[in-house]
Amino acid sequence: MPIRTHRGRAAVYRRLWGWPLRSPKHLLAAVVLFAGLATGVGLLLPEPQLDSPQQRGSQQASSGGPDEAAVAAERRAAKAPPTISVPQGGPAPAAPSPEGLTTAEAWGRAWVTHPPGTDSQQWLQRLRPHTTAEFITVMSSVDPANVPSTEVTGPAAPLESTSGSMDVRLPTNAGELEILVIRTGQGWKVADYTKVG
Its domain of life (predicted)? Predict the structure, then answer.
């Protein structure tokens, strides 16, 4: 007898799709049936034809194409992973620049010069000619009243130097500063400092 209503058709579909969930035996049978069906389809389908450079090279060689050396080079190029060059070390050391040492000393003198009543804008204006634009924004958060040093007590001494930067130690009356001076388009400028002692 034919199914004449949508309700009857839905009941048939529900019965078919619900069959694997009726019991564990039905579920196992459905999984085995599906796996067998997938394996059978996989065995019946033909192998995919890959169009790789190795296959093209062997086809050209057999058909009188380019010589074997060119084919071998193409195969090596296809198999070789990309090379990445990583620098082995940092920049080469160089003699300390006198201009960089002068900049560090001038910055140090401006850093320790903050008489009582000096506001931070006046202090920053004295530091600005010797400081990079990026570091002057960091220095704007420093209150000059919190700087304990009041004078530079000796010359700047280079610790490490390359052609583009120097680490300089500058003694003050409240300890030593380690100053990073870098070469910019406007000459040597202070890019960072650390209180050492």
Answer: Bacteria
